[in-house]
Every structure is written in structure tokens, then in C-alpha cells.
Q: What sequence folds into this?
């Protein structure tokens, strides 16, 4: 009973957030079916994919709801527990959330010729599929950061902050891992990957780095020159701005580059699971991948980094990429002790100075 | 051939196939059990490993028990990428520290000490395997056993068990097929000597009764020996039949020729007295032929029965009484008395009653026609191990030098008389077939004695 009231309270509190932003796409022809997508992804990146998909399925009308990853997760967890029908397809950049939900039985399996081509790290249990290839990049303001200063690895970042502390004080930005799902996910794997990350965090603390909730705000402040360098931004969004003419430079760190694969699944309870699976197949198909590489995410599995990105030789990139695998290891990411510990360490680094 | 008997080949093949099938079934069951245990063992080790990896991170910080779930713990379990993984850490006071709070811990398992446990359960609707280990926390803030549970769905271990079983079954199947082919070949090979015998017999001339000259394995040597023995007997019988037919033809031709001559004489004779004489001769000759034919048949019957009738216990006294009764009409014709000297008590011997009666009748008739002047005595003496049948007459008897010959067929002691030369031969044959001896002797009161000496059926062995 107490628990029920608590759940109701939580729902009321989170109501405005869970509503997300809804976008309607009318069927191109006579409408026969409807597809509802609950996700976390900027409409600018997703819209070209939905439009292209409708060319293939002209009888489907589509509702796309964009929410913050944490809100999406809470909503889906609640729906899964009660058996409520919320969507025919869900995806999120917080792959850990998606895997945790699928592990708890909230997804339904899907196997098709398209899913068979998915690389192993992007397929969990034939339920969760990673359909994008989005590196975590360093973004800097091209006009304000001298080329010699551009950090191409975490060690170089540490050196830069030590050698030019005054110039970059309060002008470094990254995610607030307490507020951003992607920030936490990247932070978690950074902590796993290298000791340089810890030193860099201390460097960020000393430099009074600014913390952001979202990629969009970070990019805006880099473009405007409010901050000079951003760390761990989603490469897809950054490249979108770069292509639109923003005065920014994009670096794929050469020590290692984390790669996020946006994770999608068809919920166990769905009104039109066939439509969800069709769109999932489209996202994984060659046509969908090509469209995503051109219009949405710009990076693709097995392809060289796009034009204008500061990266290692194409031949070396595959060795530098560290895809975040969809698998039980992501369960450790969602562990509450683990999260509390990482947040504590993070805060200590930032408050050390 | 009687009825439809399945061939040896099918019998062997069917029996061994059934055996193989049974064996394969048992092996399949064993393989399934083994594979299941092996798969559980292998994956349980991973589960326990993951649990202890988590356990090692338990420590008390700021008065609070905390863990640092290592990614490697789950990476260990994601060796099989198809599994769902659940975990939970429970503090010494029973409160959930982290993980899936609804992953149930059996009450008797909480804080039971360090021995790890693994069991099957259902969680979130999936059949899972749960491993639990305990980790001792010693800190003023919290002391006791913390429990770490790690659960994994069964898909991978079931798949492994299935694969192991299938592989084992494939091997069992291959072995069974090899064994079956081997059995078929071995059976054909083993039955080849039988085919050789069949071909040898089949391609043989019907008159060829010589023994088979085929080397046979020990197991069917008996069969070839039986066949050879049978052919030997058949050959013997054919021989004796042929000689008997030849003898009979010869023996009958002579009196018939004589009879024809008598009839010819009778036809031409006009003197009534001589006609009567000739007629009497014809009658006598006809009777002689009749007796000859009867004795030939009797002899044939006796030799046939000797080979086809098995012996049964018979009462000699009763038998002799019947034989005497048979002979009495002929004796009375010649005014000869027949005396029977035997007690009423039955005397048992082994034998064929019909042959024996024939033999005894022939001895008596022989006495009637060739010896006895006035009387014939028949006696039975039961001794300790023998039974002796004695038939005596008061005639001249047979000279001792002819004794060895009188039991041969168609031997006549004298050129005269009406004998066929078969009577004593029949008696001797029957005696021989019964393991008895036929003896001649001169007894008291000028009696000529014929003795048949039998082994007692109820007596001591000879």
C-alpha cells in the first residue's frame, strides 16, 4: 500500500518530464497501421530515418516521443511491471537502461535476416539491438583554441590543463554524470578503461569545469565560445552541428574512443509489435544504416570517420574504438552501489580543489 | 518344412538389433544425465565465481556495508551471451544491499556460513539457476554473514547439455550402425558353411548317398554328421531293400516255375489217379508259395519295425501265449501237442511285441514243419539278469555244424520239405534287434532246444 502511494507520488512528480515531446508523422498513403516509438534521440537525427521508413511502409502512421533517458527508463520500468502498453518500439542512448529492462523480461525477441547481420557486441539475446555507431568525442571551438592546444588523447588533455591552467579555467565542459544518462555511461566505461581518466577528472576539477545535462547545451556553449573544449560529447550530434557550419572541431581520442550504440527493443507488451519489428529491421538494414550515416549519426560501424573529423588513420580506427557491448556487464552500470561509488569519486575529484 | 520359421539371419539380426536399440536407449539416458550434470557443473562454477568476485568487494565504509560490483563478474557470465543475469547482496541483518531486491533467498540459507550453494528456481518467469555464497563481515557497524546471490537463466546450459547429448547420441548411433553392419556381415559369414551344405545336397544326384565331404565348423559338425549318418542308414536300408526284393523275386520265381510245370502236367494228364496226385502237388506247392510270401512279408515287416519302432516294456508270458495260440492250428494238423511251461507271473522285457510274436511263431512253426514228432514244449525261465525263452521239440533237430547257417536267409537244412528258409532267419533278426541271442542246444529226453536269451527289462544291467 505504502509502496503504491509512493509510486503514485513518483509518477505525479515525474509526469511533466515523462510526457516527453511528441511528433506525429501521417501515413503517406491510406493509413492501415500505427507505430508508436518511445525513445531518447533528437528529432533532427531521427526524422530522416522515419521519413525514409515511411517510403517503404506508406500505410503506417508514426508517433515519435522523445524523452530524457532517465525519464524514459522510469516510464518503461513502470510499464513493464504493470504490463501497460506504451510503445511498439523503444530506443535510448542509455544502453544500460535498455539491457537492464530486457534482462528483466520487458523485451520480446526478434530474429530476422537483418538482425543476423548485427555485430555480436550490438545484439543482446536477440532482444536488444544497437543500431547506431556513435563515438564519444572531444569538441573544441576552432576559432578560440590554437591548433597546438587541441588535445588528441586524455594524456594530452591532462597536460594541457596543467600547462595552460589559467587559459582554460572554467572553460572546459562535460556531462554531469548525476544528471545525464550518457554522461554516466561514458564515465563508467572511462573509469574502467584508463587511469588517465581519473587524473583528467582531477584536472577538470582544478579547472573548475562546467557540468551539463545534455549534449545540445554543451555544443551551444562551445560554439558561442563560453567554453573552449568539451569532453565526451556524442559524435553524432557534434558532427551534425559541424556540418551545419558551426565553428567547432571534432577529435576522436587516439588512446581509445568509446563508442555508444543506441539500443532498441520491441517491448514485451506492444499494441503493434510487427510494426515495431519492421522499423527495427529498417534501422538495422543497409538502407537504414546508409541513411543514418548520411543524415542522422554520420558515423557507421565498419566505416572510416566522416570528412573533417580529427581521427587516427582509418586503418587504425577499428583498434581504437571501444564499443560499449550490449550484455550483462551493463548490469554493473545500473548497480546502485556502483553508481553511488562512481558519483562519490566523481564529486571528490571535482571538489578536491 | 513345418511352418514358417524365420531365417537364422533374421533371427540373429533382429535379436542383436533389439539389443543394440536397448543399449542405445540406456546410453542416451546416461548421456543426457551426464550432459546435464556436466553443463550444470561448468556453468555453476561460473556462477559461483561471479558470486565470490562480488563477495570480495564487500566492505564497510562510513558505517555502511557497500559493494563495488565488478564488471568482470558479469563479463564472466556473459561468456554465454544468451543469458539473463540477476544478482542480489543481502546484509547480515537481512536487508537488501544492492541488486534485485525480489530475488528470494530461502530462509534456511541466510547466514548459514561459508559453504556455497546452488539451486534451481524461477525468477521473473524464467527458469534460473541461483548460486549463493556467504561472506563474513567483521566490523563494529555490522558483523555477520552477508549473502551474495547470482542467478542465471538456463538457456546456455540447456543448449550445452543438448549439444553434448546429441554428440554422444551421434556417436552411439554411428557405433550402432557399425555394429549392425558388422552383425550382418558376421552372420552371413557364419552361415556360409550351411549354404555350402545346402548347395552340396541340392546339387547332388538323388542316388548318391555317399557321405558329405565338407569341412564344417564345430557348431554344425553335428549337423553334417547327422546328415551323413542318416544317409548311411538310408543307404543301408536301400541296399537291404534291394537285396530283399532281388531275393524275394528269385525265391518266388522258382516255386512258381515249379507250380507252372505241375499245372502243365495236370493239364495233360488223363489218368484220374495221376491227376489227383498232380493236383495234390499243386495244392502243396501253392500252400508253400503262400507261406513263403507270408514269411517274406513278415521278414520285411520285422526289419522295417526294427528301424522304426521304439522298444516298450512287454510281458513275455502273455506274448508267448499268443504266439502259441497262433501256432496251435498247424500243430494240430500234424498231431503234435504244444506244452506251455510258464508261471502266471508276468516277465517283462523291452521290445517290439509284434516282431517278437512273429519271431516266436516262426520258431514254433519251424518245429512243427521240420522237427517235432509228437510234442513241442515252450518254457520261460526268468533268471537274475536274463530271461530265457526255450522252445523244444522231440524231433531230430538241426545238426550242430549247420547251426551257424540256419539263421541265414533262404538257407535250408535239407533239400526236401516245404520250408522257405526264412523262419529262423526272422527269429534271429528279431533276436538281434532286441539285443538277444538265439542259441541251439540238445536237451534232456532227446529234445532239440531253441533258446532266445533276453536281458531283463526290470533286472540288473547286463
A:
Amino acid at each position: 500500500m505504502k509502496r503504491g502511494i509512493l509510486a503514485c507520488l513518483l509518477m505525479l512528480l515525474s509526469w511533466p518530464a515523462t510526457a516527453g515531446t511528441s511528433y506525429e508523422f501521417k501515413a503517406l498513403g491510406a493509413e492501415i497501421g500505427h507505430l508508436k516509438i518511445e525513445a531518447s534521440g533528437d528529432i533532427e537525427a531521427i526524422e530522416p530515418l522515419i521519413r525514409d521508413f515511411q517510403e517503404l511502409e506508406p500505410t503506417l502512421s508514426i508517433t515519435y516521443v522523445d524523452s530524457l533517458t532517465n525519464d524514459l527508463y522510469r516510464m518503461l520500468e513502470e510499464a513493464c511491471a504493470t504490463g501497460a502498453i506504451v510503445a511498439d518500439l523503444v530506443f535510448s542512448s542509455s544502453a544500460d537502461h535498455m539491457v537492464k529492462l530486457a534482462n528483466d523480461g520487458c523485451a520480446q525477441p526478434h530474429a530476422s535476416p537483418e538482425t543476423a547481420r548485427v555485430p555480436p557486441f550490438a545484439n543482446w539475446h536477440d532482444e536488444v539491438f544497437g543500431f547506431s555507431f556513435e563515438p564519444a568525442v572531444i569538441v573544441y571551438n576552432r576559432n578560440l583554441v590554437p591548433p597546438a592546444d587541441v588535445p588528441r588523447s586524455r594524456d594530452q588533455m591532462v597536460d594541457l590543463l596543467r600547462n595552460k591552467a589559467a587559459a582554460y579555467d572554467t572553460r572546459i565542459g562535460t556531462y554531469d554524470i548525476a544528471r545525464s544518462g550518457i554522461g554516466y555511461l561514458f564515465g563508467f566505461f572511462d573509469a574502467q578503461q584508463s587511469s588517465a581518466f581519473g587524473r583528467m577528472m582531477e584536472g577538470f576539477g582544478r579547472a573548475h569545469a562546467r557540468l551539463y545535462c545534455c549534449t545540445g547545451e554543451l555544443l551551444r556553449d562551445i560554439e558561442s565560445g563560453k567554453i573552449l573544449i568539451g569532453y565526451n560529447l556524442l559524435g553524432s550530434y557534434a558532427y551534425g552541428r559541424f556540418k551545419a557550419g558551426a565553428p567547432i572541431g571534432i577529435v576522436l581520442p587516439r588512446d581509445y574512443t568509446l563508442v555508444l550504440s543506441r539500443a532498441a527493443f520491441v517491448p514485451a507488451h506492444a499494441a503493434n509489435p510487427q510494426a515495431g519489428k519492421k522499423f527495427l529491421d529498417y534501422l538495422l538494414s543497409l538502407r537504414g544504416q546508409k541513411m543514418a550515416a548520411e543524415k542522422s549519426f554520420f558515423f557507421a560501424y565498419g566505416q572510416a570517420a566522416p570528412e573533417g573529423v580529427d581521427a587516427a588513420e582509418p586503418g587504425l580506427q577499428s583498434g581504437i574504438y571501444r564499443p560499449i557491448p550490449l550484455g550483462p556487464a551493463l548490469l554493473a552500470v545500473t548497480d546502485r552501489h556502483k553508481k553511488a561509488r562512481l558519483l562519490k569519486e566523481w564529486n571528490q575529484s571535482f571538489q578536491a580543489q | 518344412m513345418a511352418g514358417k520359421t524365420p531365417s537364422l539371419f533374421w533371427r540373429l539380426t533382429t535379436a542383436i538389433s533389439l539389443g543394440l536399440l536397448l543399449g542405445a536407449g540406456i546410453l542416451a539416458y546416461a548421456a543426457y544425465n551426464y550432459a546435464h550434470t556436466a553443463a550444470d557443473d561448468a556453468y555453476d562454477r561460473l556462477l559461483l565465481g561471479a558470486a565470490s568476485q562480488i563477495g570480495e568487494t564487500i566492505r564497510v565504509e562510513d558505517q555502511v556495508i557497500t559493494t563495488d560490483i565488478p564488471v568482470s563478474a558479469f563479463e564472466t557470465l556473459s561468456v554465454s551471451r544468451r543469458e539473463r543475469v540477476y544478482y542480489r547482496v543481502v546484509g547480515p541483518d537481512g536487508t537488501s544491499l544492492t541488486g534485485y531486491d525480489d530475488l528470494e533467498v530461502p530462509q534456511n540459507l541466510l547466514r548459514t556460513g561459508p559453504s556455497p550453494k546452488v539451486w534451481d528456481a524461477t525468477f521473473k518467469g524464467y527458469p534460473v539457476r541461483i548460486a549463493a555464497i556467504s561472506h563474513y563481515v567483521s566490523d563494529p557497524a555490522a558483523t555477520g554473514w552477508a549473502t551474495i546471490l547470482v542467478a542465471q537463466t538456463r538457456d546456455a546450459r540447456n543448449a550445452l547439455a543438448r549439444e553434448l547429448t546429441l554428440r554422444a547420441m551421434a556417436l552411439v548411433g554411428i557405433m550402432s550402425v557399425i555394429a549392425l553392419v558388422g552383425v550382418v556381415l558376421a552372420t552371413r559369414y557364419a552361415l556360409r558353411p550351411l549354404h555350402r551344405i545346402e548347395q552340396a545336397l541340392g546339387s547332388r544326384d538323388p542316388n548318391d548317398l555317399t557321405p558329405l565331404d565338407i569341412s564344417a565348423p564345430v557348431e554344425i559338425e553335428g549337423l553334417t554328421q547327422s546328415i551323413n549318418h542318416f544317409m548311411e542308414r538310408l543307404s543301408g536300408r536301400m541296399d537291404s531293400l534291394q537285396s530283399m526284393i532281388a531275393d524275394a523275386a528269385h525265391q518266388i520265381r522258382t516255386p512258381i516255375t515249379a507250380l507252372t510245370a505241375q499245372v502243365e502236367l495236370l493239364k495233360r494228364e488223363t489218368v484220374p489217379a495221376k491227376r489227383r496226385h498232380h493236383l495234390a502237388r499243386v495244392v502243396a506247392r501253392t500252400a508253400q508259395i503262400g507261406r513263403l510270401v507270408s514269411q517274406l512279408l513278415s521278414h520285411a515287416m520285422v526289419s522295417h519295425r526294427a528301424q522304426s519302432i521304439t522298444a516298450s516294456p512287454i510281458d513275455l508270458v502273455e506274448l508267448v501265449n499268443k504266439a502259441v495260440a497262433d501256432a496251435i492250428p498247424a500243430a494240430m494238423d500234424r498231431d503234435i501237442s504244444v506244452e506251455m511251461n510258464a508261471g502266471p507271473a508276468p516277465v517283462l522285457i523291452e521290445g517290439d511285441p509284434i516282431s517278437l510274436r512273429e519271431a516266436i511263431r516262426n520258431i514254433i512253426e519251424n518245429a512243427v514243419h521240420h522237427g517235432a514228432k509228437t510234442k513241442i514244449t515252450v518254457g520261460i525261465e526268468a533268471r537274475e539278469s536274463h530271461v530265457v525263452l526255450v522252445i523244444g521239440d522231440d524231433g531230430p533237430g538241426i545238426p550242430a555244424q549247420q547251426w551257424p547257417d540256419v539263421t541265414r536267409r533262404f538257407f535250408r537244412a535239407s533239400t526236401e520239405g516245404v520250408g522257405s528258409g526264412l523262419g529262423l532267419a526272422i527269429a534271429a533278426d528279431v533276436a538281434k534287434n532286441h539285443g538277444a541271442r538265439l542259441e541251439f542246444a540238445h536237451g534232456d529226453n532227446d529234445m532239440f532246444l531253441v533258446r532266445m536269451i533276453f536281458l531283463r527289462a526290470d533286472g540288473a544291467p547286463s
Observations:
- Chain B touches chain A at residues 66-71, 73-75, 77-78, 81-87, 89, 97-99, 124-126 (CB under 8 Å).
